[in-house]
Amino acid sequence: MTYRSILVHVDGSAAGGARVDAAVALATRFNCPLTGVFLRSSRLPRHMFADAIIPMTQDVLDGRIEERTREIEAVSNQAREVFRAHLGREPITMRWLDIDDENGDQLIHCAKRHDLTVLPPELTPAFSDRAISAARIGVASGGPLLILKPGACPVPFGRKILVAWNDSREAMRDPGCMAASRDGSGNPCPESVPKRRSRTRPAHAQAHE
What we know:
alpha/beta; 2 domains; 14% strand
């Protein structure tokens, strides 16, 4: 199993930087492009309109929009600098996406175009109060998803992989999960190879051990 492209969510935080470190390690291992994605919301806060005693003039509205645009640009630039800083001197192709997405629909489309997406368990676009679940992105995109909690992504990582098996149709994709435990040379990591064959595991899964 290999990855031809990896997408990682970047928000400028320390946890976001750690996600980039993990994504860089994977992109380097598989020699594939790495895309950083920053989510934002350009929607003006509702209270600016709903709570206004006097309706805004067009000049005031234009001023608020320009102010929000500058704020978004500053935060986006900060996230991009974090992405570049953690990329370091690794010889991989870097791409950057800045998308206006408050509900995750655009992120789902981006995830569908990449072989692997690296996300936190929950993410909130900049200047939005709506949280997006990584589980929703994974189910809707239908592709591999690596969810990393803050502080839970030491580098290097991925030497040991736990595979859940319940003999269902979805579990038949187990061989692909097992292949993810291979190192950069394509050889199984000794720590991840089972010592005993299970009596309950079908032969097609055991054949991939």
